[in-house]
Specification:
This protein has 69 residues and is an all-alpha fold. The chain is elongated and about 55 Å long. The two termini are 31 Å apart.
Length: 69
């Protein structure tokens, strides 16, 4: 997986994140990519409507999990 995605997803190690953040200070194309991807994620988060999960769905999923456990 691309290190940019790992950094943005919060899944990069501290070392990977530190390396990448230092890298984009000196690499304009990567800096632009970081800003574009970050902004897209922010826009999507602000536009996505959060809907509650129906309780019967939660119950059904828990029931299936318990059956297979």
């Amino acid at each position: 997986m691309d290190i940019l995605q790992l950094v943005l997803d919060g899944e990069a190690s501290d070392t990977e994140k530190e390396y990448y953040m230092h890298h984009i200070e000196e690499c304009m194309p990567c800096y632009r990519n970081y800003n574009i991807e970050s902004e897209i994620r922010n826009i999507l988060r602000s536009k996505l409507e959060k809907k509650p999960v129906p309780t019967d769905l939660v119950t059904a999923i828990r029931s299936k999990v318990n059956e297979t456990a």
